[in-house]
Amino acid sequence: EVQLVESGGGLVQPGGSLRLSCAASGFIFSSYAMNWVRQAPGKGLEWISQINIDGTSTGYADSVKGRFGISRDNAKNTLYLQLNSLKIEDTAIYYCSLGEVRGQGTQVTVSS
C-alpha cells in the first residue's frame, strides 16, 4: 500500500522559510517522479512542483518559481520542499503526491 506522510509545516511570518518532508513507503520510491501540490482555504488543488526519479530535473509553478526548491533522497525514501520568501498567499495544506495518491498533508500558515 502506498503511504505518503508529510511533515514540517507550521506558522511562519511573511518572508520566512520552512522545509517540508514527505516520507514515502509501499512502492519503489526511486522509480517514480514525485510532486508537491497545495490547497489554499476555499480553493482547489494547485500543482506547485515536480521532480524526476533521480532529482536531475525539476519544475515549478510560476507562483513559487524562484522561492521554493524541491529535492529528494532516494536512500531515505523522502521528498522535500524548501519554502523560502513565504507570502501570505502561500498559506495552504501542502501534499506530496504520486499520481492521484496524496498524504494527509501538512498545514503551512503564513501570517504576521
Map the helices and strands:
Layout: E1 3-7, E2 10-12, E3 18-25, E4 34-39, E5 45-51, E6 58-60, E7 68-73, E8 78-83, E9 92-98, E10 101-102, E11 106-110
Parallel strand pairs: 2-11
Antiparallel strand pairs: 1-3, 3-8, 4-5, 4-9, 5-6, 7-8, 9-10, 9-11
Summarize this structure as a short list of keywords or feature phrases:
mainly beta; globular; seven-stranded mixed sheet; four-stranded antiparallel sheet; single chain; 0% helix; 112 residues; 11 strands
What's this entry about, in short?
The chain is mainly β and 112 residues long. It contains no helices and eleven strands.
Structure in words:
This protein is mainly beta and 112 residues long. 0% of the residues lie in helices and 52% in strands. The strands form 2 sheets. Strands 2, 4, 5, 6, 9, 10 and 11 form a 7-stranded mixed beta sheet that branches. Strands 1-3-8-7 form a 4-stranded antiparallel beta sheet, with no helix packed on it. Strand 4 (34-39) and strand 5 form a beta hairpin. The model has no long low-confidence stretch (mean pLDDT 97).
Helix-residue proportion: under 10%
Distance between the termini: 40 Å
Write down the overall mean pLDDT: 97
- How do the SSEs run, as a string of H and E? EEEEEEEEEEE
As a percent range, the share of strand residues is over 45%
How many E strands? 11
